[in-house]
Amino acid sequence: MTELTKEEKEIPLIKYEYLDHTADVQLHAWGDSLEEAFEQCAEAMFGYMTEIDKVEILEKQEIEAQGEDLLSLLFHLLDEFLFLFSAEPFFIARKVKITEFDRINFKIIATGYGETFDLKKHPQGTE
Question: Where does the Archease domain start and stop, copy by copy (predicted)?
Answer without folding.
Answer: 16-127
